[in-house]
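BUG-726 | component: ligand-complex export | severity: low

The export step for magnesium ion jobs runs without errors, but we want the raw record kept on the ticket for reference. Input record follows.
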Amino acid sequence: MAGNYNLTSQLKKHFGFDKFKGNQEAIIINLLNGNDTFVLMPTGGGKSLCYQLPSLLMEGTAIVISPLIALMKNQVDAMRHFSEEDGVAHFINSSLNKSAIDQVKSDIVSGKTKLLYVAPESLTKDEYVEFLRDVKISFYAVDEAHCISEWGHDFRPEYRRIRPIINEIGKAPVIALTATATPKVQHDIQKNLGMVDAQVFKSSFNRPNLYYEVRSKTNNVDKDIIKFIKNNTAKSGIIYCLSRKKVEELAEILQANEINARAYHAGMDSATRTQNQDDFLMEKTDVIVATIAFGMGIDKPDVRYVIHYDIPKSLEGYYQETGRAGRDGGEGRCITFYTNKDLQKLEKFMQGKPVAEQEIGKQLLLETAAYAESSICRRKSLLHYFGEEYLEENCGNCDNCLNPKKQVEAQELLCAAIEAIIAVKENFKTDYIIDILQGRETSEVQAQMHDELEVFGSGMGEEDKVWNAVIRQALIGGYLSKDVEHYGILKVTSAGHKFLKKPQPFKITEDNDFEEVEEETPARGGGSCAVDPALYSMLKDLRKKMSKKLGVPPYVIFQDPSLEAMATIYPVTLEELQNIPGVGAGKAKRYGSEFCVLIKKHCEENEIERPEDLRVRTVANKSKMKVSIIQAVDRKVALDDIALSKGIEFGDLLEEVEAIVYSGTKLNIDYFLNEIMDEDHLLDIYDYFKESTTDKIDDALEELGPDFTEDEVRLVRIKFISEMAN
Ligand code: ADP
Ligand code: MG
């Protein structure tokens, strides 16, 4: 059938393109031949064309299921652009009124419509199913097919109903398309859509121009980001944060440091949000600080960096978001700030969700941790995660390849791990295998009676960290695999069995040690970390002189790390000096002026350009407000009076107070609570928070019922957090 068309000329005729991209042509031929087809192609690879062109060539109407209503309209407009017939493409979703729907139906019946885009929740409506049963369907396209799987990054339950509905409307070939699918997700999609035998077309997911780096997230993360941006002025960049609050805070800090940054998150009013997005696209602003709500369908080709302030919840998300850098094939730096604490926080957020969902979330977090902590090639890890083998020894474009760690032989360790996995009948996940190797008598180990196994405790000579590295690298090396039905369970592959029979050299690199680098000033025996060693030694001399004069030990004046910082960022006023770690207002005043004079002189004599812009200015007004609220509460001023005197709404005051207690400061507001609430009422709310797994106000209001007001619940929550958490 496909042979009847000259596909390239059809491509030219309908879309104006001269040739196919990647394996578009093979995909289209497969579909034209009536076969189920599965397409894995990175974003921007040209997936839409894989169903658009066939729909024009085949008899009947193609049904395209896509989750994004906004994008749907764009696609339909684009198709109409290519055709003389407006009715060639239509969409059905909840935004259409009755007469628009009648128009769509009449175009379909008269055979004008080749492509019908449908939102999954509309497809399930009886009215449409009934109508479509009498329509000749050429094929079904399921775009963003990862939405089918709970293991994907955007699970949508309606997607699970696609197969039964296809069966009701009438069978036709199915083409499923996605830009991110791990082998597990791919398996779920094919199984759920009943297309296990589909031909799979998988393009490489490698993006050679993207540079991947994971940095330890220290207290200096804001400073690191400011420095990075200042070294990359006039380049477009996106900074992703997990929370809306962080987005706003960081945008404010960047602005206070003369960086033209804008915020973007779903909680902003839509006019500002759209404005900020447009400013970014029009290059009125270089940097956008955003939650992951930003980026869908945004096609700015020259984003030069993507920074993750917080580690994403899954590598799918990470890959999608980093993928927005360097789409034109040019520079694209992807930098992630990582601390395991952030992952623990994410895990806590999941509490309260159904257990199965939590378990999935946890496994995805573990994969993220493995990626971040591993010292093997980032590209290799990522591609492996998406089921692709990357064979280069050194990719030359990630932090781990640019600073390779020493490798150590781990042949015997791998044998021990494989033996342990086999001994527990290939039925357990990594953590459990490590418990066995370490000989830990956990309750589960005892319940399984695995403490009686010969392998129990066989790996006690090594730390967990090493075993983690062995297992991860054995997965990447193909000696082990993770079960796709029961995700996370370790299996030994045939290569693994062979290895056990006839061990080969197996080198591993130890994981990156994030705890060690997390210290503010790395202890590098002897040497200092000052950028300007000459100045550093002059500062040390000055300190010695003053210590003699004042009769106090040198470290009482300033400690070494403070001097190192001074010899790096050159503060010349007392105010600037207070930005140095370990220097507060008192110290600056008492000892600072001679140091400032010395630094100033040194800068002038050596014509040093001070990296003044590296200083992180705090958002002063904001903290001033907090300080004065704390003082007023200490003086037992009624909260409504505080709001009045600050000229803010009571709700806004509560927000400030919440921020204060959530950031760890104790505030006693009992004097106010006792005045405005009766005791039983207060206790009911307090007890609720004690029992509850969440501190969400909405949940509390729902549970507590209409007798309680939002303000009351918030006030008691403040008391609770202040007392329990601080
Ligand atoms: P995806 O859905 O895979 O992210 P799209 O289908 O949106 O990608 O296509 C990305 C871009 O590539 C679009 O601008 C599209 O017009 C363009 N494109 C697709 N196929 C071709 C082709 N054969 N030649 C040139 N451009 C193409
Ligand atoms: Mg697409």
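Assignee comment: Attached the raw record above. The longest strand covers residues 210-216.
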